[in-house]
Amino acid sequence: MAAAVTAALSQDATVVLLTPVVLATSARLGARPRPHVYATAHLANSASLLLPVSNLTNLLAFAASGLTFTRFAALMAAPWAVAIAVEYAVFRRFFRADLAAPPEHVPGAAEPAPVPRFALVVLVLTLAGFAVASLAEASPAWAALAGAVVLGVRALRRRETTPRRLVASTAPAFCLFVLALGVVVRAVVAHGLGDGLEWLLPDGDALPALLAVAGVAAVLANLINNLPAVLALLPLAAPGGPGVVLAVLIGVNIGPNLTYVGSLATLLWRRLLHAHGEDVRLGDFTRLGLLTTPVSLAAAVTALWAGLRLIGG
């Protein structure tokens, strides 16, 4: 579920929507929440590879890659799948004691929640709109805007929200922060960082080169956060072609599972857990990151390299 929500809605949606749901469901079922809570954080990052709309970093890479929406998704489908598979395998072993523990109490019967049919239909049509917009050489933002307007107008008509809450949900302060961050990163890159990164990035799209690019991107994401990292690396990666751009994307999306500061989604996840009174252990997070991130990174880049050979960039 976390992988699907991340791919279709974005990594932040996974953290904001699923983290409280996971905690509430675990409490109701008497299950230990740790495996599921940590999976939410990890998959918010690593499962955000699939679509251009799955992550803000994806949108930036999508614009730099020159790919169509469908070609982007086709090339990233295999990296997305293998990253999820690695996460699943490691999580099953790392949390085997928690997963095998009997429930702390017998769960009671619960009324099934109504299926949000209208929202699901709009979501499917919006995703289809992304592909259509790409074929028409239009920005996928128009499809996203159309879906948001439909849902917003319906919510207003049903008095489920207010105009003020709708405006607040667009996070204008965060948009301003991203704009300011882009200006700062551009200035830093222009005054020395770009030369250093250019020296580190290898040429070509052979497998060793793509692995090195993803590794540099992952390290940089954990040093300065993945959004500044992708802003700094994309201008240097774009001349190398779509393969190099997507290798950067794999690095900045999977790499943040190593540290709390790697992505804004992980920071938000930690804040939500603290708000719900849940303890987040740095040691567990770090060990889990060390077990999953290098393997996921290598597997995803290898899958990308194979896709580039089969599909073409």
End-to-end span in angstroms? 29 Å
Biggest β-sheet description: none
Number of helices: 15
What is the chain-wise order of helices and strands? HHHHHHHHHHHHHHH
Number of strands: 0
The average pLDDT value, as a whole number, equals 84
Q: What structural class should be given to the helix and strand makeup? A: mainly alpha
What do these coordinates show?
The two termini are 29 Å apart. The mean pLDDT is 84. The chain has helices spanning 2-9, 11-29, 34-46, 56-65, 69-94, 96-100, 117-135, 140-157, 163-169, 172-200, 207-224, 226-237, 242-254, 264-275, 282-310. The chain contains 15 helices and no strands. It has one domain. It is mostly helical and 313 residues long. Helices cover 76% and strands 0% of the residues. It is globular, with a radius of gyration of 20 Å. Helix 1 runs antiparallel to helix 2 (11-29).
Ordered list of secondary-structure elements with their pairings:
Elements: H1 2-9, H2 11-29, H3 34-46, H4 56-65, H5 69-94, H6 96-100, H7 117-135, H8 140-157, H9 163-169, H10 172-200, H11 207-224, H12 226-237, H13 242-254, H14 264-275, H15 282-310
Helix pairs in contact: 1-2, 2-3, 2-14, 3-5, 4-12, 4-13, 5-15, 7-8, 10-12, 11-12, 11-13, 11-15, 12-13, 13-15
